[in-house]
Amino acid sequence: MRGVPLHLLLGLGALLTLAGYAHRLGFLPSAVVGVGLGLYGVLALWGLRFGLRHALLLLGLLAPWFPPALFLAPLLFAGLFARNFSEKDQGAFYGWALVWPALALLLVWHVFPTFYAFYLSLFERVNFLRPAAFAGLENYRILLQDPLFWRALGNTFWYVVFTVPTGLLLATFVAILLNTRVAFLGLYRTLFFLPYITALTAAAAVWRWIYHPEFGFLNWLLRTPGLDWLNTPTGVFALLLRPLGIEVQGFWAGPSLAFVAVMAMSVWHFLGYQVVILLAGLQAIPKEYYEAAELDGATFWQRHRLITWPLLSPTTFFLFTLGLIGAFQVFTQVYVLTPTGGVLQDTLTLAFYLYNKGFRDSDFSYASAIAMVTFLIILALTLVQRRVLERRVNYEV
């Protein structure tokens, strides 16, 4: 491009526009914005070597009074003089111009908050009402010695172990059944997808009634009147082994009956989404494979074990990855079904503990430390999962 690389100046202007608003909200020091503005000014002045028309880019220096000027000045310059650019330069500029709005949303709602959460975690008890002293890694040291954190991590671990494989296997079975030619197939698919499009809060409220100890549908169905599903802290392994005379305690007692009830509701709610994705994967498998296997005498289970499962591996890998990430962030259904985190904090999860620290105790620095540790755990498990499982994924149909 003759003159300053306009697409780079556009990107810098977009970042500085966001930084300007962050500074106005008190999230960034003025020095950061000042350095960025100075860099923009240098690039704009350098453009004057290629013609006085590049002086239009200097309008971006009005950003201290009007932050979007940094982004609008390159756009205005391109609108007036783009006809003089080469086709390659026009493609580069307009491509970035179309990408930046979506990229800006990603930065505002995901990337910048991550760095800001780490920044907050380095201070002592941030509540935005008074200045907070710098504490370094003290919050992380306290976190590693916090029994409630380990309790929440253990509960979250059980949630992942129970819900992710169970939901995936059940969804695969249902998707295989719905992939056959049966009457009212569209109705069945709709019925399975309806729970997912129902608001999670409303669905959890209905399940709270289902689990009610006196008037709940589940106790009526199982003929167990008075069983308080959501307030029974005893682990399910302990309940199952107790008739055999085996007593287990602590972590090895397993998730509480209350938490298993939460897990059952979660599997039910997200089943429809997984079924729809798996149905799309099943319909991409050529039917000739099944016909050839049937001619060779393969049974129903052999066809699905040797054909469906290997060729469905990209879809199951995708759902397993999303399920793992989502399971570590579970909050809504736990909060609605057990608002206090259970009788003995037996349904407390990492996201629920983060919420309590941030919005109940007004300790956003400690909550940010929990968020950063949760992020690192999810990142590590996702990388391990990708290294271990992706090699077994068959992308060729």
What would you note in describing this structure?
With 397 residues, the protein is mainly α. The protein has 2 domains: 6-107, no CATH class; 144-392, MetI-like (MetI-like fold, Orthogonal Bundle). 66% of the residues lie in helices and 0% in strands. The chain has 17 helices and no strands. α1 runs antiparallel to α2 (30-46) and α7 (185-197) crosses α11 (257-283). It starts with 5 loop residues before the first helix and ends in an 8-residue tail after the last helix. It is found in: Cell membrane. One of its GO terms (biological process) is transmembrane transport.
Task: State the total count of DSSP E strands.
Answer: 0
The CATH architecture of the largest domain comes to Orthogonal Bundle
Q: Output the CATH homologous superfamily of the largest domain.
A: MetI-like
Task: Profile the largest sheet.
Answer: none
Element order: H for helix, E for strand = HHHHHHHHHHHHHHHHH
Q: Terminal Cα separation, in Å?
A: 44 Å
The share of residues in helices is 55-70%
In the CATH hierarchy, the third-tier topology of the largest domain is known as MetI-like fold
Radius of gyration: 28 Å
Describe what is shown at a glance.
With 397 residues, the chain is an all-alpha fold. It has helices at residues 6-24, 30-46, 69-81, 87-120, 138-144, 147-178, 185-197, 200-210, 217-222, 236-241, 257-283, 287-295, 300-311, 313-327, 332-337, 350-360, 364-389.
